[in-house]
Write a structure and sequence with these properties.
Length: 243
């Protein structure tokens, strides 16, 4: 477990310890040497660290021949491509799963939003998290917006209507043409709303994670599945075979 002393790391350690078919063999945190891990002792490493460390961690794990399940967000197209190319050069059967969200309800909400997006003129995303979260918009929201944008492009839809001329900073981030708004508020854990609108109607898809325990079924599924999926897999929906 990388990031074992963090909020998510501690919860993952407890979940792995409680799983009869899994064994926790190492707990690493800031300052520990990821390169010291070997494939003789470790089958899968789970990374819940910070955006500034996770990419280097994954490359070290690939070099060691260790599968990786990564919940740390902050990944870019370039950093994902770098990992994909590294896996290609390494050959073999090492798998890396990058999942912006391990909550089953969150993954389903993303999928439903992408399915619905082609039928609505307008769509925006609101993500709501605790104030200790270091990146904004969240990886989940970016992943959701990218899937929505791809579905709209495939359907031949243009940009959503928006007459804004000034004050664009109040309109949220632009993720592939989809507006994404980030809220940081004490008392929240992880939440997302996707708002879709047509003349005379609105669809709201809302997902709430009230406790980090809600992510554990997805994390454990990722650990069990990544060993059977060589190369790079992005999104838990692909492990769930939701497309």
């Amino acid at each position: 477990m990388l990031g074992a002393h963090g909020r998510m790391g501690r919860t993952v350690c407890e979940a792995v310890d409680a799983a009869p078919d899994l064994e926790l063999v190492a707990r690493l945190d800031a300052g520990d040497d990821v390169a010291s891990l070997t494939s003789d002792a470790v089958d899968v490493a789970v990374d819940f660290t910070v955006p500034g460390a996770t990419e280097a961690n994954v490359h070290a794990l690939v070099d060691a021949g260790i599968h990786a399940v990564v919940g740390t967000t902050g990944w870019t197209d370039e950093s994902r491509t770098s990992v994909r190319e590294h896996l290609g050069r390494a050959g073999g059967d090492v798998g890396v799963l990058l999942a912006p969200n391990f909550g089953l309800s969150a993954v389903l909400a993303m999928r439903f939003a992408a399915q619905a997006a082609r039928y609505f003129e307008s769509v925006e995303v609101i993500e709501l998290h605790h104030p200790e979260k270091v990146d904004a918009p969240s990886g989940t929201a970016r992943h959701t917006a990218a899937a929505i944008a791809a579905a709209r492009a495939e359907a031949g839809l243009g940009a959503a209507p928006d007459a804004t001329e000034a004050g664009w900073d109040a309109r949220g981030a632009d993720v592939d043409g989809v507006r994404v708004h980030a809220v940081r508020l004490r008392g929240l854990v992880a939440h997302e709303e996707i708002l879709l609108g047509n003349p005379g109607e609105q669809l709201v898809i809302r997902q709430d994670s009230f406790d980090r325990a809600s992510f554990m079924p997805g994390v454990l599924l990722g650990i069990r599945e990544v060993v059977r999926r060589p190369g790079l897999t992005v999104g838990l929906e692909n492990v769930l075979e939701l497309g």
